[in-house]
Amino acid sequence: AGTVDCIGNYDGVLSTIDFKTARSLKEADHILDYFMQVTAYTLMAKSCYNILPKQCVIIIAVENQPKPQVFKVRPEKYAKPLIERLTAYKNNNGEKYDSTEARSANP
User: Considering the entire predicted model, what is its pTM?
Assistant: First the structure.
């Protein structure tokens, strides 16, 4: 229920790393929620620990594939859409959401 898998160096870059499993290969445009999730973990690392990983890495172990799929993205690409989604969710559920803190952690 929402725990970062790993923050560490990947290819020499401080990264937020999330591990997934899948039955079939994925395309990047089909895993946008994964990118938003790992971006959220990146923003939380900045907010809670004052560290800001420079990239987000999704590593997917796929059944019957000898190597995992690896997707690397920059957190700034998904930070704004993530904040917009959080704001819409909170507002649609009758809660007022102040995204000031999230924006201050924006990479």
Answer: 0.82
One-letter amino acid at 98 equals D
pLDDT above 70: residue 105: no
Main-chain dihedrals φ then ψ at residue 79, nearest 5 degrees: -65, -50
Tokens 């000898």 -> residue: 66
| pLDDT tens for each residue of 2-35 | 789 999 999 999 999 999 999 999 999 999 999 9
**Nearest 10 degrees: CA dihedral of 88, 80, 56, 13?**
-150
CA distance 78 to 37: 9
Cα–Cα dist 75/35, whole Å: 8
**What counts of helices (H) and strands (E) characterise the chain?**
3, 4
Assess contact for 18 and 5: CB atoms under 8 A: yes
